[in-house]
Every structure is written in C-alpha cells, then in structure tokens.
Amino acid sequence: MRASDTVLPHGRTIRSFETGAADASAAIVWHPGTPHTGRPPAPLVAHAERLGLRLVSIARPGFGGSTPHPGRTVASAARDALAVLDAAGVTRAIAAGYSGGGPHAVALAALAPDLVGAVVAVASPAPFEGDTGVDGAGWFAGMRAPGGLLAARQGRASRLAYAEHEVFDPEQFLPVDWAALEGEWGAVGEDAQAADAFGPDGAVDDDVAFVTGWGVALAEVVPPVLLVHGTGDRVIPFGHAERIAAALPHPELLAREGDGHVAVLAGLGPALDRARTLLG
C-alpha cells in the first residue's frame, strides 16, 4: 500500500492510497463511504488484483489527512479526485464508490467521461430533490436514522452541532449486515471507527453536500453506471437507487434481495467484473 499527498493549486492536500503497478494506466478509483480514512478494504484490494487493475483510493476533504474544505460539493470533491488521478498518470478508470462515496464516483464520470469507462455505485444516495419529509416517497423515506442529514439541511453549523451528540443506532443494520461485519467486510466498520481520529469535518461536509446540489446532473453521465443496492437497506433505502436509475442515460440496477447497507458489499465483486468488461 502506497500513501501519497497531492497538493492542489490553492494549497489544499488530498491524500490517496494505491496498490498495484505504479506505472499502470488503468485503475479502479475508489470513493469510500462516510466516514473513512481513505484506506481501501482488503476485499477490494483483492478484487483489483484479480482484475489486473491498479487501485487508487481517495480520501475526501476532511478525511484521512486530506485538508478539510467546508462548503464543498460532490462535484468539487470529484474534481479533487481528478487532480490526484492526473498526478498518478491514470488515463482509464472504473469509478467505484460505496455509500457516501457513490455520488462522488458518479460525479467523476460526469466530469471526465473520457477517463471513466464505467461506474459502480454501491448503496449510493440519490441527489436531493428538495423533499424533506420522512414519510411517504420522500428522499428521507425509509431511513432509520436520518438525524445527521436532517441537521445538514439547516446548514453546516447545525450539522456540526449535531455531531457533538450523535449516537449510532444499531437498528440501521440488518442481521445480515452484522454478519457481514463479522466476516471479510469487517474492514469497513473498522475503518469507519478509525476515521474518528480525524474529527467530524469530513462526515459533516459529506452530509451537507448530499442534501444540496451535487454540481453535476445525472443526465450528463455518459458512461454506464452499475447501481448495486440492497432492497432491505435502512441507511440509504432502495428507493434511492431507483431514483438514480430513472435519471441516468445508461443505468444497470443490480438489486440485492434482502441485503442491508453492509451485506450489499457482497455484490461489489460481480459488479466490478461487469465494469471490467465495459472498460475494455
């Protein structure tokens, strides 16, 4: 694993982690969930090795040593990732993201369609459409613990204040999720816990970005997008995948029956296999 810092023109730093041949031009570009340290989980590293691809994992601003960027959007964070990829010499990529990383993988494809040949978005939230209700068919509908995102609708200061007393609700996860965390995907939970060392800025700014404009439109995403989503997800409900699919030019919705927010990661490998064929 190689860690590196890319200094942007305005002085901020973005940390990334790489595996695979440093001179390989084709890569999986990984956008981790919220929160994260930027280090890719071991199962993902194994998938990249199996597919013969370099792996570049991006720590968004405020996470894992990357400089915080209050007021950032999904699109601006994706532009930060593009700067990392340019410095690393990546010229062809699968943009992949999990949970909070999903929007950033999609945005990368919108911004750089010549670079991104395919997208894999696992358990990704959809763009916010202005609906604030927690019942019915609204953006928050079906979320077990929407408190942080609801606070983010009131602005960054409100979300930061919420972070001071935020308590994890274990009922967000299904029994199949807890089983996944006890298995190979335990690395995701461990990484989320390790992210606490970097403070709340990353998660706060992620949530604010999710409930404001992404800065790109789904209709602008030219590459095919594989949407992997569990039908039982209580963190980002399945309806979000349906919303994204309805707005994309070339979606493939890969529903995982009964999976929750973590168990759905079992579908990452098959989706990457499919994306590898699309990459060419």
TrEMBL record:
Residues 27-265 form the AB hydrolase-1 domain. GO terms for molecular function: hydrolase activity. Keywords: Hydrolase. InterPro entries: AB_hydrolase, AB_hydrolase_1, AB_hydrolase_fold. Pfam families: Abhydrolase_1. This is Alpha/beta hydrolase.
